Amino acid sequence: MTRLSVLDLAPISQGEDAGTALARTRELAIHAEALGYQRYWLAEHHNMPGIASAATAIVIADIARATRTIRVGAGGIMLPNHAPLVVAEQFGTLASLFPGRIDLGLGRAPGTDQATAQALRRHLSGDAYQFPDDVVELMHYFDALQPGQKVRAIPGAGLDVPVWILGSSLFGAQLAAMLGLPYAFASHFAPAQMMDAIRVYRDRFQPSRHLAKPHVMLGLNVFAADDDATARYLMSSRQQAFVALRYGRPGPLPPPVDDYEAGLGPAERALLDGLAPGTVCGGPETVRAGIDAFIARTGADEIMVTAQIFDQAARLRSFEITAQEHAALAA
């Protein structure tokens, strides 16, 4: 059975602050654990008025402390923003505090705009080969200490911290296959190369001591409600936020509106149409059919559900319906 997990951006809704967003993230994680979700990941983004998970490792610690069994991790840490040793120490600390529950997903994008990337002290002149080298260096810090090793991650050395490669293009698929690591594709916001990336990863996968066979996790927007119309209404918050971001106007998550798409021009409609392969929206039966079709089309080993929904009660209900309908597929 395809596993089901959660990707949460800790959305800050209009009229609320980051503290409220993080409290709601904590509530959703507890809810997801009770519903049987496999893992709960948070993503590193910076200078985003609508996202509260910039200090990702700190939020992961809060979520892991509030839960008991669900795996908690990063989807992902944007490695170009950090020294590999610092990331190894952070996640070594998390793994020491919460043994057997911490995941580390790594991405090569900055997770922000160029000016903010410079403020993060990111070296913008680096070439595409630096990310693979940084991944290998980081993973080395999790190995058992070697005699004479001068630079060590403490905590970190000798700990089992599963590393994932994230991607929205073929680059990450190739790297994950070469290193024999699990692969997570960002099909929830960039599904255009999803099928090609899956094929490349599976065809080129080289078994490693970390993973014997390919493991593909795919992001999927799921907006679930008691009926199709309500689900489409809830999804309009995400649609508004996505269009605003693409036009350089990021902001807090807006409240839903009726018939949002009706007032859009061709360019905005095309942006939203591009999300369709990575989106399921509707009542219970529609969601079940949509998840079933997505699994059949992709052969995903795991689906990472995300849902930027303005109202917290509706968001909790959406993840509940999603879990129920996913379970029904295996019944």
From TrEMBL:
GO terms for cellular component: cytosol. GO terms for molecular function: oxidoreductase activity, acting on paired donors, with incorporation or reduction of molecular oxygen. InterPro entries: Bact_Lucif_Oxidored, CmoO-like, Luciferase-like_dom, Luciferase-like_sf. Residues 3-301 form the Luciferase-like domain. CDD domains: Flavin_utilizing_monoxygenases (cd00347). To bacterial alkanal monooxygenase alpha and beta chains. PANTHER family: LUCIFERASE-LIKE MONOOXYGENASE. This is Luciferase-like monooxygenase.
